[in-house]
Specification:
The complex is a heterotrimer of chains A (323), B (553) and C (249). By secondary structure, chain A is α/β, with parallel strands linked by helices. The radius of gyration of chain A is 23 Å and the shape is elongated. Among the domains of chain B are: 256 residues, 3-Layer(bba) Sandwich (FAD/NAD(P)-binding domain); 34 residues, no CATH class. The relative contact order of chain B is 0.17. In chain B, α2 runs parallel beside α4, α2 runs parallel beside α8 and α8 runs antiparallel to α9. The chains are: A alpha/beta (323), B alpha+beta (553), C alpha/beta (249). Chains in contact: A-B, A-C, B-C. The interface between A and C is large, with 81 and 76 residues.
């Protein structure tokens, strides 16, 4: 059986967690198929490639060069496609990040093979079968990959990294001699222009509603958001009342958010609001009305007065983060 | 009842006629069509299709009228998205307009085979005989959204240009003649200043403008006020709240009810129709001359679903859509004395062509559009679009079954002004006498003239399973109106706590709230039902595509 | 400049998804189809570039007969002409789709081909980039800013918590991310004109590619949560649960 190639992603020479997840997905699939997992690391010369065996790699190939510090799409694609072809791999797996979603299609095009993006599970029991959400998570495909080779990108946070003890032998691979010059060149990577964390982009959102009683009390929301390193959101009621700007509004007619953690403070949970945040991974609700509809979608709820609960929660989180 | 009683009309603003009737010359950057139908409902679309067919036949016969451009303007983002009706419809005009299409290919759901009428008490129901006017044998249950989309496709097939997402905001006039309309600007910020997606209003010039705006049409009202077109009785309205449910328990019949949950001082009833055995439309319709200032049609609709007649069907099911709309209920004596003028005709619900006793208006609306099309065609042939030429529309309509039907039942709805039971007795006599009882016209006043008093009532707690708050309901209407839109509603000058509270109860979409004695207006919630225009702040159109997004209402 | 915009007809994002009887696709009855929202950014960018430098904008859509309507929307926004590559059903394999589009683009002599970053039905985010590779053109995906002068371009693309600045020369392929611009609404005049603009229809044959749909299902209901307690006393338990159960920090 031919092996699986995992293309890892690094930033500033450190392999990202999402690549550990990709390795875990590859490892599980390899164990079902009875083959090896090879990792390919493209990056700057000082990239740390030690210990990847512990994440499931049997072999680690490196292509490290000063010129490869930033993501250079054509160069990366050529190196990865050369390796994929040279090693006759059955599947190439990447994390479905900004880089993975750009590099994956390039590899698939060069190999002339099928690509499945953003998968949440892979199985090798009966051919390669993946699941992946479509229509903004409103439906899920189960797909059988009948072509070979194939390229798969794995959605971040869908697969947990494994603790393994594979060899992870490092081997340097040279880029082929006929490397085409990079036709598009990445000049720099910098911080985004807009420093304020947008509620639609944030990994953590703390949102307040009418239960806060007046605009002044939004300090509680801001305090908790700051403690968590998250963004502030607001319900339509408080935006309409002029307490908060429209840019913070979460809901059907405001922004749709999908953070890892959503904390709703004094928000009753009208369907309009729920439509904008129900895809959050973990939802916490604090509201004094035990019948508030928000509790129906919340993973964790506290029935209580936001004015009592929130200061304590903020305090506890500051402590937890320090510890 | 509280001591004070409130007459809504005393607090209503007038129509802003200076913004609705524009006499200055048309813009150079205008669009020209020969005939413009304002509103893509059954009336406007049937009219446009009929006209296109007449033009085509005429041109094929040689020496024809030549190319005639026909436009249909619609405020909803796509056809059908603002259309709401029960609906059990009479297929007659479809057969006339589409003689080659068999009934089974028309956009209907199920043929009515079984029907029942019940009188409800708070906990019970009793089947009563079906009055002759309400017999539906041979009629079809349909979704008006689907009907409108289907008519739109037929219209495009015959070369009609449909412009969805463009509301008409004003009439363009020259002297007494209507020469077109002006659309509504879009992309305005809350303060009325142009935003980044601003698009100015456009003039559309037309030889004939057909106002088919539906119930409480703004430009139709404005035209009639401007030209002093009266009716014997003022138009009166009912508000209907409708829901669409996917159910676990099949429904095999068309159901109508009377009695509970309405107080005796209110006129109305409920309906439940199967579109499919497990897809059910239900709703409650209440005359806007109700007397209790705290009456809420939305809340009564929610209560109704807990009644033993409805609950068994709905339990375990899912609310998939919600909507609201007014219905012109005045009948024969409320039809405007003329429905035509220089360069203009008024169709369908905008002309009050609804028969309350049979609960029908769609086929009359289509028929009116088709008569208007004939008159407009003749006018274009003669190259004369004056009122004199277009009066042929009124003649056709007056001689038709549409006006005859309405004449026969002319006093039924007015009879119920004196309360439910006397009304029912009188309606029975009217049926027996073929409409002749009581031998004279019953006078009516505008809904907003009916005094309101406050009664105390227990509030319903919405459970989110069978019953839903107004805010949740608005979500189910598909309304995604931009939040930063300027308010399109014009309240009167002095709105105190009592009046604000009355508005908040009246509006089914939580547009109005009474907060600390003040009126708060959540304009984006509005689903364009027009109840507010009848009893409260006046309604004007917003940028195209605002409001509800009905799919199968 | 001659610009191609590749667009797709997709179900409106507000669509309530129902699974069709075959268990492998959505039930399309009553579904409203629209121009893919990300493609609107691509169309807008093409129109802005045309306004700066003249030339022609051509919209290309691979899809069923009904996708003519989608093309008309683009024409109403201001695109000059449309090409429908007519195929009743699109296979799941993006390579097959990309090949059909690349074949059409290759003949057109375009300076720039714009795509939406992804289509809101399949969420693949692949076709534009694959097309570029098949045509051996430089490409940048998910672009939030684009500047072109004299055949030389710089694009900004958002990556996790940062932006990348990429330079390239034309001809090239760019896929548009939300934020690139604010798409215009079709004006009434645009809709009138659109009806008279040329729209070519070409039949295309698509093979199945290397991906087979086994099933399409609705996601499982969210598992019900729990009330950890009442008042401030419940805070320690909540923090504990967030840390050890939910593992959010």
């Amino acid at each position: 059986m031919s092996d699986i190639l995992t293309v890892l992603e690094q930033r500033e020479g450190v392999v990202k967690r999402v690549s550990h997840e990709a390795l875990a997905a590859a490892r599980a699939l390899a164990d079902e198929l009875g083959c090896e997992v090879h990792a390919l690391v493209i990056g700057p010369p000082d990239t740390d490639v030690t210990g990847l065996g512990q994440y499931g790699a049997d072999k680690v190939m490196t292509s490290l060069d000063e010129e490869l510090t930033l993501y250079q799409a054509s160069r990366y694609a050529q190196i990865a496609a050369d390796q994929a072809m040279g090693g006759a791999y059955t599947t190439v797996i990447l994390g479905a990040t900004s880089l993975g979603k750009d590099l994956g299609p390039r590899i698939a095009a060069r190999l002339g093979c099928p690509l499945t993006s953003d998968v949440t599970s892979i199985s090798g029991v009966d051919g390669i079968v993946v699941t992946r959400p479509v229509f903004a998570g409103k439906a899920i495909y189960r797909l059988k990959i009948t072509g070979s080779p194939s390229v798969i990108t794995v959605r971040p946070n869908a697969v947990a990294p494994v603790a393994a003890s594979n060899a992870g032998v490092v081997e340097e691979v040279s880029a082929s001699d006929d490397v085409k010059p990079a036709v598009a060149r990445t000049l720099e990577v910098r911080a985004p222009d807009n420093a304020a964390l947008d509620v639609a982009e944030a990994a953590i959102v703390v949102a307040g509603g009418r239960g806060l009683k007046e605009a002044e009390h939004f300090k509680l929301v801001e305090g908790l958001a700051q403690a968590l390193g998250g963004a502030v959101g607001a319900s339509r009621a408080v935006v309409d009342a002029g307490w908060r700007p429209h840019s913070e509004q979460v809901g059907q007619t405001g922004k749709t958010v999908s953070p890892n953690l959503y904390i709703a403070l004094g928000i009753s949970g009208a369907i309009q609001h729920l439509a904008g945040m129900r895809t959050a991974k973990v939802i916490v609700a604090i509201n004094k009305d035990p019948d508030a509809p928000i509790f129906k979608v919340a993973d964790y709820g506290i029935v209580g007065d936001v004015f009592e609960v929130v200061p304590r929660l903020t305090e506890a989180i500051v402590k937890a983060r320090e510890g | 009842m509280s001591q004070s009683s409130l007459v809504p009309a005393d607090y209503q603003a007038r129509l802003p006629q200076n913004q609705l009737i524009l006499g200055e010359p048309l813009e150079e950057e205008r669009i020209d069509v020969d005939v413009l139908f304002v509103g893509a409902g059954p009336a406007g679309l049937a009219g446009a299709i009929q006209l296109a067919k007449l033009v085509k036949e005429d041109n094929e016969s040689g020496n024809g009228v030549g190319e005639i451009s026909i436009g249909v303007l619609e405020k909803a983002g796509a056809l059908g998205e603002h259309s709401l009706s029960g609906a059990v419809l009479n297929p007659r005009p479809f057969r006339e307009l589409f003689p080659d299409v068999s009934d089974t290919d028309l956009p209907f759901r199920t043929r009515v085979e079984k029907e029942a009428i019940y009188l409800l008490s708070p906990t019970r129901y009793r089947r009563i005989p079906t009055p002759p006017t309400m017999r539906n044998h041979g009629n079809y249950v349909a979704s008006i959204c689907e009907v409108v989309r289907w008519l739109g496709e037929r219209a495009e097939e015959v070369g009609v240009d449909i412009f969805a997402g463009f509301p008409a905001g004003a009439l363009r006039v020259e002297g007494d003649r209507v020469v077109g309309i002006r659309t509504v600007a879009s992309g305005l910020e809350r303060d009325g200043s142009p935003g980044s997606s601003y698009m100015p209003a456009t003039d559309i010039a037309a030889k004939v403008t057909a106002l088919a705006e539906g119930s409480r049409g703004l430009l139709a009202q404005s035209y009639m006020e401007w030209q002093g077109v009266a009716s014997e009785n003022p138009q009166i309205y009912a508000l209907g709240v409708k829901e669409l449910w996917e159910t676990k328990h099949p429904l095999d019949r068309v159901i109508h009810t009377m009695g509970w949950p309405l107080p005796r001082t209110a006129f109305g009833g409920s309906f439940m129709y199967p579109l499919e055995p497990n897809l059910v439309a239900l709703g409650l319709v209440v005359g806007l001359d109700y007397r209790d200032a705290n009456l809420e049609v939305h809340e009564l609709t929610q209560r109704m679903k807990l009644h033993p007649l409805f609950k068994p069907y709905l339990e375990g099911g899912e609310l998939v859509e919600w909507g609201a709309k007014t219905i012109p209920e005045g009948g024969y004596h409320s039809i405007p004395q003329r429905r035509h003028g220089d360069g203009v005709v008024i169709l369908g619900d905008s002309a009050g062509l609804v028969d309350v006793p049979s609960l029908k208006g769609i086929h009359y609306a289509m028929q009116s559009g088709m008569y208007a099309a004939r008159a407009i065609f003749a006018a274009l042939k003669n190259d004369d679009v004056t009122a004199k030429q277009l009066s042929a529309y009124d003649e056709l309509l007056n001689d038709s079954y549409t006006v005859h039907d309405l004449y026969r039942t002319r006093n039924m709805r007015p009879a119920f002004k004196s309360g439910f039971y006397t009304g029912a007795a009188k309606a029975g006599l009217m049926t027996l006498t073929g409409g002749r009882f009581p031998g004279r016209r019953i006078d009516m006043e505008e809904d907003a003239r009916a005094p309101r008093a406050t009664t105390e009532c227990e509030e319903l707690t919405y459970d989110g399973e069978l019953t839903f708050s107004k805010v949740d309901a608005v979500f189910k209407s598909g309304n995604v109106t931009r939040d930063t839109i300027p308010s399109h509603l014009i309240p009167g000058e002095k709105v105190g706590a009592e009046l604000a509270s009355f508005y908040s109860h009246m509006c089914p979409a939580a547009v109005y709230e009474e907060v600390d004695g003040q009126l708060r207006v959540n304009a984006p919630n509005c689903v364009d039902c027009k109840a507010t225009d009848v009893l409260g702040p006046r309604w004007t159109p917003r940028e195209g595509g605002s409001g509800p997004v009905y799919k199968r209402m | 400049m001659k610009i191609a915009v590749c667009i797709k007809r997709v179900p409106d994002t507000e669509t309530r998804i129902k699974i069709a009887a075959d268990g492998k696709s959505i039930d399309e009855s009553g579904v409203k189809f629209v121009l893919n929202p990300f493609d609107e950014y691509a169309v807008e960018e093409a129109l802005k570039l045309k306004e700066q430098s003249n030339g022609e904008v051509v919209a290309i859509c691979l899809g069923p007969e009904a996708a003519q309507e989608t093309l008309r929307t683009a024409l109403a926004m201001g695109v000059d002409r449309g090409i429908l590559l007519k195929a009743e059903r699109l296979p799941r394999d993006p390579l097959v789709v990309a090949r059909a589009l690349a074949a059409e683009l290759e003949q057109g002599g375009y300076d720039l081909a714009l795509f939406g970053k992804l289509a809101v039905d399949d969420y693949d985010q692949a076709v534009g980039t694959i097309v570029a590779e098949l045509l051996a053109l430089p490409s940048v995906s998910a672009v939030t800013r684009l500047e072109i002068t004299d055949g030389h371009a710089t694009a900004q693309r958002e990556v996790e918590g940062a932006v990348e600045l990429v330079e390239f020369s034309l001809p090239a392929v760019v896929t548009a991310e939300k934020g690139l611009n604010e798409p215009r609404y079709p004006a009434l005049r645009g809709i009138m004109l659109a009806k008279k603009k040329p729209l070519d229809i070409k039949e295309v044959e698509l093979d199945e590619g290397g991906i087979e749909v086994l099933e399409l299902t609705l996601p499982p209901d969210r598992k019900s949560g729990r009330i950890v307690g009442e008042g401030a006393a419940a805070v320690p338990e909540l923090v504990e649960a967030l840390r050890n159960e939910a593992k959010v920090f």
